[in-house]
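From the shared-data thread, chain only:
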Amino acid sequence: MRQMVVTFVTSDNYVYHFKLANMVCLLILNIDMENNVMKKTKLFMLTMALISTVVSFTGCGVEGVSPTRAGMPVPKSEESSEFGEQVADEYPLSRETIKKLKDLDSDYNKVNWMVTYSPSKEYPDIVVSETKYEYKGFNHLVVAFTNLSDEAVKITYKGGAKNSTDEIEKDLGESDVELGPKATICSDLYFKLKEPSGDIEWNTFEVSESDKLYIPYEQTVTLDLDSSGDYYIEASQKADARLDCDYHDGFAAVLDKDGNILQGENANWGNSVSLYNDSFGGEDADVVYFKNFYRAVN
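Structure, as tokens:
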């Protein structure tokens, strides 16, 4: 049934919105203007019907809308926050940085990142990207650090990831991570049944020079089945010299055709990541593997 929205503005500048069914609207249009008695009778009946309709709509909480001040913003509790809205507003990316991200030739752009931002004003080429996924009924938040510059850096950070009720759900602790040029590393944060908001409270985010030596390398990542019929992700790297890596903030994931994560696992040890999963329902379309590799000292 089509509906008509009626708006009332009170003397103290409150606004009420109500939806009226077509039946009431048609009765208003068909009032007999020639018969004053019938006119008054119908107007009285319509007034009573309108009052009952308004009470019904307001009481059920579905069709009625709570009043708000006209010309004033809706209170925060009544707004629907987007994923990572706070950090995106506080640490926006420049057009130049956005272009660098899009031009990045790595697995980074395979993932459908839901929010990207740069917590360091001095180093805008250090970008944080976030997305979320659900696996077997539990929620995960993936936080990625990407170095768009041509210099190796060390990032010192401390913070807490918030859930949908704006509470700190996961403490990121205090970490020092190395990150090579054009490289990305990730942390997979387990939120259990809580919904990640995408907002992180960064207490510390400092960038400094790294003393590690980085060299170019090629990487191949595949999704295969093991002898028991479960999937695993296998990565291999090829370089002109022996590579070493940091054994933390490694991450591997299976993606669907839109870049959304179907399943992710920490890849801190070795190039082979067992998934203990025998089926993705035909939705698996790609794989990614992130880890910070550099030239070995010996």
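The chain has four helices and 18 strands.
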